[in-house]
Amino acid sequence: MSEYRMTIIVPVFNELDNLDRIKDTFLEYLSKSKNKSQVLFIDDGSTDGSFNKILEICNTKPNFKYIKFQKNCGLSNAIKAGIDSCTTELIGYIDADLQTSPFDFDNLLQDIDCYKAVIGYRAKRKDSLSKKIQSLIANSIRRALINDGIIDTGCPLKVIKTETAKKIPFFDGMHRFLPALIQLQGGSVKQVQVRHFERIAGKSKFNLLNRSIKPLQDAFAYRWMQSRYINYTIDKSNLNV
């Protein structure tokens, strides 16, 4: 059994300028949080030297771990790799841009015992107007098509019970539908307001294509899966007799 309660997945793709700040912020958070956690970097084929910095951090800080992809595979693959390798009770997820704060994990953890997942939503976003409009359109389309009741599915701050996360059906783009995919299992999800900050370093990996067009395609994929999803509960069995 793991000595940690939570593994915090941090996907990294060309975030060299952010990694020292990530290390310092997480070291402060880990030292103050009542929940013992470890950080798991998923290097998604970075080409800017990010992995060398990740190695430097992990070689000196025992509660920092890493997985390195051979090539860039995308955010959904990075999250799946983190979930597949997790042995702790809980999985946390946060983006490497630190536009959300790891200190808000403790607000989500207050309610995790009663839910399968507790996720953040950004009430006061510090993004550009165009980015806000793109997200608003994407969220509106998603809610209209799948009716999951989620305010801000793109908020990169989530805590999920590991047992639940490992049952999530995966496809490319699934990171946009994590709450809905948990609901598909019959799992309960709570939403909690979290803080949001401007990006200080590095460049956003999102644009109109992957904020609007791809989510629309994925929403139709989810609707198909929703109509075909197999979900059952065993009442009785003598397999262990």
Quickly count the helices: 8
Distance N to C terminus:
26 Å
The share of residues in extended strands comes to: 15-25%
Coarse morphology: globular
Average pLDDT figure: 87
Write the H/E string, N to C.
EHEHEHEHEHEHHEH
As for the number of domains, it is 1
Task: Tell me the name of the CATH class.
Answer: Alpha Beta
Oligomer: single chain
Share of residues in helices? 25-40%
Class computed from helices, strands and strand pairing:
alpha/beta
Unreliable runs: none
- What is the CATH topology descriptor? Spore Coat Polysaccharide Biosynthesis Protein SpsA, Chain A
Radius of gyration: 18 Å
Largest sheet: 7 strands, mixed
Query: By CATH's scheme, which homologous superfamily applies?
Result: Spore Coat Polysaccharide Biosynthesis Protein SpsA, Chain A
Provide tags for this entry:
single chain, 241 residues, alpha/beta, Spore Coat Polysaccharide Biosynthesis Protein SpsA, Chain A, seven-stranded mixed beta sheet, globular
Polypeptide structure, described:
The chain has one domain: Spore Coat Polysaccharide Biosynthesis Protein SpsA, Chain A, CATH 3.90.550.10. The chain is globular, with a radius of gyration of 18 Å. The protein is 39% helix and 17% strand. It is an alpha/beta fold. The two termini are 26 Å apart. The longest helix has 21 residues, at 208-228. It contains eight helices and seven strands, in the order βαβαβαβαβαβααβα. The chain has helices at 16-32, 50-60, 75-85, 105-109, 129-146, 162-165, 178-184, 208-228; strands at residues 6-12, 37-43, 64-68, 90-94, 117-122, 157-161, 189-194.
